[in-house]
Design a protein that fits this description.
Blueprint: H1 3-17, H2 21-35, H3 37-57, H4 63-83, E1 92-99, H5 106-118, E2 121-125, H6 132-142, E3 146-150, H7 154-157, H8 160-169, E4 177-181, H9 183-187, H10 191-194, H11 207-225
Parallel strand pairs: 1-2, 1-3, 3-4
Length: about 230
């Protein structure tokens, strides 16, 4: 990694932590104009957000810092989408994501949504405190083959099992894959099968690759049933 990239990442991190949203967006916009918004996102923004996400999971960031991080990412991704729209052939999805019922920790989910969108996925983000039936209803209505559910704590992670039960009750097991994530699942990966998950990943940067695998698995299940 070049010293220039290291310096840009350090400056961006400081801007976000100090709630200098305009400065953060200015830094990324300048780098995007010079070298492309894809470079600005993948070489600078993604690693910084990964570090912020890790600190958030360890309760070392305030709500305000998490909010600024999410808004900076949304701002730069919007500019990226406006300047370099994805060709039709590169669009993927749709997929449905949200925080499970009683869970209100939005930063991790927003980061996943941003990285999925930057990889070409059409994301239906249901937000916080989403009922299990709403996840499945939305997947059926939109034609999504993946539901991504986030939970911060064990007490809320256990609610993800209700999404699995609803999928199975409607005969959608395998046809709609269940991706699970969040701080408690990263700390205790044995929870993935316990809550009925089909897969997980360690951070938001890895989410597009996970969703690629799960989408392919859903298609295989569909073909096998026909």
């Amino acid at each position: 990694m070049s010293e220039e990239i290291q310096a840009l990442r350090a400056n961006l991190f400081d801007h976000i932590i100090e709630a200098r949203r305009d400065k953060a967006v200015e830094l990324l916009t300048g780098e995007g104009a010079a070298k492309g918004f894809g470079h600005a996102v993948h070489a600078i923004l993604e690693p910084v957000l990964a570090e912020i996400g890790e600190r958030w999971a360890r309760d070392r960031l305030s709500l305000a810092q998490g909010y600024v991080a999410g808004k900076v990412a949304e701002d730069i991704l919007r500019k990226m989408a406006e300047s370099t729209p994805f060709p039709a052939g590169e669009r993927k999805g749709p997929v449905v994501i949200g925080n499970i019922e009683d869970d209100h920790h939005a930063l991790g989910r927003k980061m996943v949504a941003i990285f999925l969108a930057s990889a070409g996925w059409e994301v239906v983000d249901l937000g916080n405190d989403v009922l299990p039936t709403r996840f499945v209803d939305t997947a059926e209505e939109s034609g999504a083959r993946i539901i991504g559910v986030s939970a911060m704590m064990l007490t809320t992670a256990e609610n993800i099992l209700l999404v699995r039960r609803e999928l199975d009750r409607r005969g959608l097991g395998g046809r709609v894959q269940l991706a699970v994530g969040g701080a408690v699942i990263n700390l205790r990966p044995e929870l993935v099968p316990r809550v009925g998950g089909d897969g997980t990943c360690a951070n938001a940067i890895q989410a597009p690759a996970l969703f690629d695998r799960l989408w392919a698995r859903a298609l295989e299940t569909e073909r096998g049933a026909s």
